[in-house]
Every structure is written in C-alpha cells, then in structure tokens.
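Why predict the complex rather than its parts? Because the way molecules touch one another can change local conformation, and only a joint prediction can capture that. The input here totals 287 residues.
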Amino acid sequence: MSEFSNSAESRENLIPDIALNNGVRVPQLGFGVFQVPPEETQRVVEDALEAGYRHIDTAAAYRNEAGVGAAIAASGVPREELFVTTKLRNGEQGQALSAFHNSLRALGLDYVDLYLIHWPVPSQGLFVKAWQAMEKLYANNQARAIGISNFLSPHVDTLLEHAEVVPALNQIELHPTYQQRDLAAKCSSLGIAVEAYSPLGQGTDLDAATVRERATSHGATPAQIILAWHLAQGTVVIPKSANSARMRENLAATSIQLTQAEMESITALESGARIGSDPAVAAFTQM
Ligand code: A2P
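Output of the joint prediction:
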C-alpha cells in the first residue's frame, strides 16, 4: 500500500471532481507548477502530493516536467489516482507527436490525463494541424483527454470547424479581476470545461477589500475565498504555491460555501485587465 493511500477516502470527499465531455473525471482543484523553477519542482510537487493534491498541471514550456515526474515516482501514489496535464510547446505545433513523446519521457509516464495546445499562436497557422495530431494521441489512449489553452472565441471557432474531437477543456487566465465571462460561457455551452490559470491573479487579487472582508466573516483566508468563488462556478482551478502551508490552505477552500450575495460581490471585481499575455498576439515560439 502506498504511503498516501490511507487518506484516499477522505481526500475524495475533500476535492470534488467534474466530468469532462468524454466522461473522464478531473479533480476540480489541482496544483499548477507555472514559474516553479526546474530545480525546485520535485520538492514542491512532492509537498503538493503529500498535502493531498492529485491533479498536477505542467507544460513542456515550463521546463519542469522532469521534476513533476520525479516527484510522482518518489511519492508512491498509484498512477491511476493522479490526473496529470501537460501542454504542447508553441514552437512544436508542427511536430506535436514527437513533442508529446518527449513530454511523456520527461514525465516518466506512459500516458497523460490531459494534453493541451498551450497557446493558439494564430500567426503560425498551425494549431489545427497540432489538433489533428492530438486527436491521434487521444484515439491511441496516450492522452485520456485533449484540450486547448489560451484559445479566444475566434480560435475556438476555427478549431471546431476542423475538429473531430471537441476539446475537453480550455485553460485560460481567469480570476476575479479578469474573468473572460463571455468566453467562459461560450466554452461551457459547447461542452468545453473551463479551467482557470492564475486563479488568484498571481496573488494580486488577494488584496481586494471585498475579498478580505469575506475572508474575515468566514474565518478564512483571501485565497480560500477566491478559490471557493471559482469552485462554486464549476471552474477547474490550479493555484500555485511553493509553500506547503499555503498548499494546504488552498485545498481547504473546498469546505467554504459563499452566499449568492458574496459570490456577486467578488464577481463585481472585474476590471478588464489581464496579467498574462494576450493570446490574440502572443507568439513566443521558444515556449
Ligand atoms: P507562494 O508560492 O509564495 O505561496 P496564481 O495561482 O494565481 O498564479 O497565484 C500564485 C501566487 O499566489 C504565488 O505568488 C503564490 O506565492 C501566491 N499564493 C498562492 N497561494 C496563496 C495563499 N494561500 N496565500 C497567499 N498567497 C498565495
């Protein structure tokens, strides 16, 4: 029996999961490793697995897949208890199959749970070609689900014109001050799950007075209030923290229920200002 399997039952109760459009279930609260330095990744992901996370989100472009894989191997957590996402690097959209196999090798896995196109990079004109390769990986069960990231409405439309498989999920920048509500609603109506990256606004949304007030009244922390707001909307979230106390704090957001008025007060924080790059023009092919 693995070191961590004793707590599997309580963890299942703790982290809700949602069904993707192909029936595959994803733990709604996962752990993101964007900006985790490669040399720290194994330690950070081992801490996350020990805290109870079972959904890990990485990307070839983060250059830390090997650390994720090392942590998974060291943890002893059975593979089938894990949900692992990685992403196709922009510069490899024309070679998605070989890029995928390089990711698998770095992760030390023989399949991933979710494989995403990291950015549309419309100027390259390659995301449809990449998707068609990913459909093959899906058909071969090397990726249990395939999806997209940073796809804006026109990119979703173009993809769907050519796709046989509807993406399972779109991972986008989404937090109280930047919600992309129209895009999220469109994805939901198409059966494409919405996943929030930078769900805490990379930490900047934690200082909003409304969030702090809600935290005080719930005896919770600002991060827990924002994560509870995401979870209540059915959004998949992947907060990042290098600190194991904050990893646990973020997991405990699953026990917080916000009232309708509290939900609305956080939704009212929309400012229209993104933190990350604009997917309409972002074209960094080194990623
Ligand atoms: P740290 O790694 O030092 O915990 P996002 O997931 O939106 O990108 O936000 C990540 C940022 O928010 C990181 O700087 C992280 O810092 C910080 N963070 C994550 N969880 C918490 C928390 N519970 N309280 C305060 N800051 C947090």
